[in-house]
Design brief:
Strand content: 35-45%
Shape: globular
Distance between the termini: 10 Å
Largest sheet: 11 strands, antiparallel
Number of helices: 2
Radius of gyration: 21 Å
Helix content: 10-25%
Number of strands: 13
Structural class: alpha+beta
Order of helices and strands: HEEEEEEEEEEEEEH
Length: 225
């Protein structure tokens, strides 16, 4: 009877340990004027392309983009922000802001591009706004998901989107945020520009998973007895 009581406790402890190591990188954490910055005691390194980090606030929401291009403080077609992790992580969610569907700011059906590096190569997804207000489509890994904006997408709103679907337990060494032209193409005033609001991640812990496996084996032995 004692063994049957102890083993579930071991499994519970392993599960807690496996999910305890998590992090959140927020756009507000970035420093204006840098093009490389470390977070979480050096575990995460952020870099920008074709400009430096620049924060932007719309309707009280603050996110980070790049200083160059047509719209400072947002990620334009030739710009990107990349987060590189010291060890592989699971992406729990990411949040984007100021991504509109038009006709706000002469943008039409803006498209954010998100690429992750895994052991098997780069996998790329797109978050595309559509003609239905506050609605977008997240396409990744051969799947598509309907996304509803966290905050409104009308002019003057901050057009915030949070994506939590698609990555599963995919082990990711880096995640990069860029932009691609929507149906209007590069001819639109500020096509597909947006800012990075946050990235939430968790770190798989092999030691905890091994402990979980040991607990499951122990449970099997106890049941036999």
């Amino acid at each position: 009877m004692k063994n049957l009581l102890i083993v579930p406790m071991v499994i519970s402890a392993a599960l807690c340990a496996a999910t305890a190591n998590a992090g959140l990188i927020s756009g507000t954490d970035f420093t204006n004027g840098l093009n490389s910055q470390s977070f979480d005691s050096g575990f995460v390194t952020a870099t920008s392309t074709n400009g430096n980090f620049k924060k932007k606030t719309v309707d009280t929401y603050t996110a980070v983009g790049v200083s160059g291009g047509r719209t400072g403080g947002e990620i334009d077609l030739d710009e990107s922000i990349k987060l590189t992790f010291a060890n592989d992580v699971n992406i729990d969610s990411f949040t984007l802001a100021f991504l509109y569907n038009g006709p706000e700011f002469n943008d039409v059906l803006e498209v954010a591009q998100v690429s992750v590096m895994t052991a098997t190569g780069i996998q790329t997804g797109t978050l595309t706004t559509n003609l239905v207000e506050d609605q977008a489509t997240w396409a990744f890994g051969g799947n598509t998901f309907d996304i509803t904006a966290v905050e409104g997408t009308q002019k003057g709103d901050d057009a915030v989107w949070q994506v939590t679907l698609g990555f599963g337990d995919l082990n990711v060494s880096s995640i990069e945020f860029g932009a691609v032209a929507g149906v209007c193409g590069a001819g639109c005033g500020n096509q597909s520009d947006y800012s990075l609001g946050a990235v939430a991640y968790s770190v798989p812990e092999p030691g905890a998973l091994a402990l979980l496996g040991l607990g499951l084996i122990g449970l099997g032995v106890a049941r036999r007895r």
